[in-house]
Structures are given as structure tokens and as C-alpha cells.
Design goal:
The protein is of the alpha+beta class and 180 residues long. The protein contains 6 helices and 5 strands, in the order H-E-H-E-H-E-H-E-E-H-H. The chain has a 5-stranded antiparallel β-sheet, with helices on both faces. Strand 4 (108-114) and strand 5 (117-120) form a beta hairpin. The protein is rod-shaped.
């Protein structure tokens, strides 16, 4: 059974709770064996993807998770754990972590939290497979635009065919008038 944190640790528990609560998602990683240079590189890549990573003591993170009723997160909080907080696009941050882990086997994605639901490693990996937010918005805009473009093409084709038909009729009448 864990003890309540000393008064100087309460501020850290509050910080972890706030970050977990405010982030659009949090991805739990194990960083055993990453050196300072690799951690700096990871921080930089996550910043570019709209995230950040921070290391907290597992006991303090567990207390914050309990306060947020995220008890399912506790099994992920063992060993050297770092939390990647997502400010914006979950897919981008998950992709950045996956790409970093490809070249740095010491980074292991253990799971995460999205919308108050605890995710396992496979679910976080599925998030990394999603297109980015910008790509999804572009696809949505393209989906809205496509019917309009097809309708404009149809109207154009109809008027073009009408014009060709009218021209053929005029030519035919002119030929009939000339023959008579």
C-alpha cells in the first residue's frame, strides 16, 4: 500500500493530474536505456508533432491517475516511465513515437489514455496508423467538393450537347433551305 505523498510532492501530483486531464491524450512509454541526447531528440520530434514528454515518479503518477479515476492506467506505471502528452493531433504524436522507436529500440510504447479510456499498445499503434488531422480535413473537404464538381461537369456537358445539337439543327435547316 502506498503512502500519501509528503506536502512537497502534492504539487507534483497536482501537476500530473492537470496534465493528464488537460491533454487530448497521453501515451505511456518506457525509456530504459535512452541517453540524454536521444531524449532531447525525442522531445524535439514530439514538440514538432504537437506533444511533449515528461518523466514523473510512478507513485506520484498513480496517485494522480486514481484522482482522475484512471485505475486501469496503474499497471502501465512500472519501470522507467515517461508520459507523452498530446496537445493537438493524437495520430501525429503516436506516429512520432513509433518512428522514434524504430531507430531507438529502448523506447517502448506501453499504452495510453484517450478521452478517459485507457488504451493498450495495439490501440496506440492503431492511432499511429490514422491519417493526420490535416489529411482527414482535406479528405472531408474533397468529399464535399466532389459532388459539386460532378454537378458542374454534368451541367457543362448538357449545355455543350445542347449547343452541338442546336448547331446541327441549324446546319440541317440551312442545307434544306439551300436545296429548296
Amino acid at each position: 500500500m502506498e503512502r500519501d505523498p509528503r506536502p512537497e510532492k502534492v504539487a507534483v501530483v497536482d501537476e500530473v493530474r492537470e496534465r493528464l486531464d488537460e491533454a487530448s491524450a497521453t501515451i505511456v512509454t518506457e525509456y530504459r536505456g535512452l541517453d540524454v541526447k536521444a531524449m532531447q531528440e525525442l522531445r524535439s520530434e514530439l514538440r514538432q508533432a504537437g506533444g511533449s514528454i515528461k518523466i514523473y515518479k510512478n507513485t506520484l503518477t498513480r496517485l494522480a491517475a486514481r484522482e482522475l479515476e484512471l485505475a486501469d492506467l496503474e499497471p502501465l506505471l512500472s519501470g522507467p516511465t515517461a508520459l507523452a502528452f498530446v496537445e493537438d493531433d493524437v495520430a501525429k504524436v503516436a506516429k512520432a513515437l513509433r518512428e522514434f522507436a524504430k531507430t531507438n529500440e529502448n523506447l517502448v510504447v506501453k499504452g495510453g489514455v484517450l478521452g478517459g479510456v485507457v488504451l493498450d499498445t495495439d490501440q496506440v499503434s492503431a492511432l499511429a496508423d490514422l491519417p493526420s488531422r490535416e489529411e482527414l480535413l482535406a479528405r472531408l473537404a474533397g468529399g464535399f467538393q466532389a459532388p459539386t464538381q460532378r454537378f458542374a461537369g454534368l451541367l457543362n456537358a448538357t449545355t455543350s450537347k445542347f449547343a452541338y445539337g442546336l448547331q446541327a439543327l441549324i446546319t440541317e435547316r440551312e442545307s434544306a433551305d439551300a436545296a429548296a
